[in-house]
Amino acid sequence: MIGRDEQTADRLTALQEEVGQLRQALVSHALIDQAIGVVITVGRLSPDQGWDALKHMSQHTNVKLREVARCLVEWPARGRVPEAIRRALPAAVEYARARTHADGREDAGEVRCGRPV
C-alpha cells in the first residue's frame, strides 16, 4: 500500500508536469497565432484562411506546424525563410482561397474594413 506522503508527492509531480505542458501549449498557441498573422498579411487572407494555409504548408512540407510557424514569425527579422516553406507559401495561399470559395465563405480579398476594394 502506498503511503499518503508518496501519493502526495506523485500528485505534485503530475501537477508540475501538467503545468509545464500547459505553459508550452500557451507558447505554441501564441507562436501559431503570430504566424497566422504573417500569412494573412502576405496573402491578404482572412484569419480562417490563414489557419488553413498554415496547416496546408505544414502538411505539404512534412514540417511540424510549430516549426513552420516559428520560421514564418522569424522571417521579418532574418530576412529569409527556409526554401521548402517559401515554395509552399503561394500554393497554401491559393489552397486557402479555393477552400473558402468551395465552402461558400466570403473571400477576404473582396472586402477590407467593410469597404469594397
TrEMBL record:
Recorded superkingdom: Bacteria
InterPro entries with a match to the protein in the record: ANTAR, CheY-like_superfamily, WH-like_DNA-bd_sf
Single GO MF descriptor: RNA binding
Residues annotated as signal peptide: none
Residue ranges of every copy of the ANTAR domain listed in the record: 12-73
Listed name of the protein: ANTAR domain-containing protein
Origin species: Streptomyces echinatus
